[in-house]
Amino acid sequence: MDAFDTLKHAFHARLKTSQTDQELAQLKADYLGKKGEVTQLMQVMKDLSESERPVYGQRVNALKKELSEALNAHKKALEKALLEAQLAAEKIDVTLPGDRVQLGARHILSSIVESIEDLFVGLGYQVKEGPEIESDEFNFEKLNLPKHHPARDMQDSFYIDPNTLLRTHTSPVQVRTMLEVGGQKPVKIICPGKVYRRDDDDATHSHQFMQIEGLVVDHHTSMADLKGTLLKMAQTMFGADRTIRLRPSYFPFTEPSVEVDVSCYNCDGAGCSICKHTGYIEILGAGMVHDNVLKMSGYDPKEYQGFAFGIGVERIAMLKYGIEDIRHFYTNDMRFLRMFNQ
Length: 342
Ligand code: FA5
Description:
By secondary structure, the protein is of the alpha+beta class.
């Protein structure tokens, strides 16, 4: 074997075991590069006679071509094998059964909030939101509940610092909205949202629950407007035949204040276990906005009057669907949540 055969033999031996692009690039450099083995063969030319040179030169070129073609062919074969392996790994068996995608649905509390929003937007109200972390000033003081007022005990609160708390009701959004318009324009809003109280959790109380606040401030707003609005809401939620009843009550921010009962949707007022044999079910608190509240938000009570109401959303849902424990809304038991999927 001459030097050509030895070189060829060694090249093919390495080519056979080269599996990566890197190995192939190195092999190419070692044999066909500037300082590669084949290039070095050329250096012998200067020691050859005139007649030997062309033949030698042709042999070197032929060798160069052969090695280069072998390299390319090997590279292509490697790429093909790699692609085939990748395709095999990514193969999908379309005949296998698919994974079932669990479809979500609206939470029942959201559905109730939306249906009440729809009703009031239809009556020309705006939907407003406010922060859940609220100042003592907006949650209490500007609602006619100065510090140390005994009625603050009606809403046991989570304080963050002496002037900041988790809002105990949605009523501070009333204050924020009235101040926004500077006591100069009528206001007609509803405000849904989460509220927080230090109540012990039981079947009818939760430390976090939802309320929807309603507020109308305008020239000549009366108790009759409040009653008509609440009747419409009760009929939308509990059926067109419902009637409502107002009972005197007390809230520091309304005067007069009322508790509102709806005639029992189950027994139509005759008396049953749902209405505790009274024929009526309590659904919300309401009243005419207190003069002090109007004044503190920049209104002149001689020019403007207002009415306001606050509904507990969970209690409405419990009544409407006969749910006995408020905690069902928050424990995310799929069997419970699915009952309301429409
Ligand atoms: C208020 O929060 C007043 N801001 C409502 C209001 C607004 C009156 C405007 C007048 C004018 P009250 O504390 O009664 O009122 O709460 C309103 C409703 O929230 C209750 O009727 C009840 O449905 C619900 N609620 C109160 N505490 C809880 C609780 N711990 N868990 C679930 N729901 C509750």
